[in-house]
Amino acid sequence: MVKPHLPHPLPGAVGLSHLSAYDWEAADGVCGGSPHLHLVCTEAYVVTGGRGAVQTLSPDGYRDIPLEPGSVAWFTPGTVHRMVQGGDLRITVLMQNSGLPEAGDAVFTFPSDVLADPEKYAAAAVLPPGTGPETAAAARRRRDLAVEGYLALREALVAGDGGPYLEFQRAAARLVRAKVPGWRELWRAGALATAERTGDRLDALEAGEPAYLADATAHETAPTRRGGFGMCGRRDEYSLPGTTLPYGGN
Q: Which Gene3D superfamilies does the entry mention (predicted)?
């Protein structure tokens, strides 16, 4: 297997995309995205326009965090999160670990029977290619199925029963287990390699030999696909290695 090589990562080997939250109304009357969690990565929302909220489920309960321009919210691994539209909500998303979410580090809150069957889960999670009406309809069906499972988890957690939420976490971990070796290679090539380069540079500075500064340069990029269908909304994506790998439909 050829090991991943991720040249010119963004600072800290973060992933980057821009989202405009879905305005589709769900079964509970709320407009927004598909609830899900990440198992390895912390995700951050940097709000650039509009208003809304992010609803979260975690061991400390249910939260509804307001979002407005300039606010930042972030969620650690295992936190279920649902972006809620309040009016033209636009967000820049920052993700840890060199594109691991694009390599599958995200599990939807589908009902338990779907989570228990890897083939059924995969069929419910995948989207057709492109950005047309067929993909939009599939993204909405996926969102509605995730909301169905999410509402049951939230109801139990609010009532003081954390069992269904904890079982969802365990089911999510089982679904992604086989992907871990590939994720480890991406982490080594991206986030870990970036941290190790910092150590090498500190060693060079301490030794008074900053030869690495001869490689100083600048980079630029722009979105290479606009209006894709992400988990939470329409997504502008970058093809930078380790940033959006490669348009996985999530």
A: Jelly Rolls
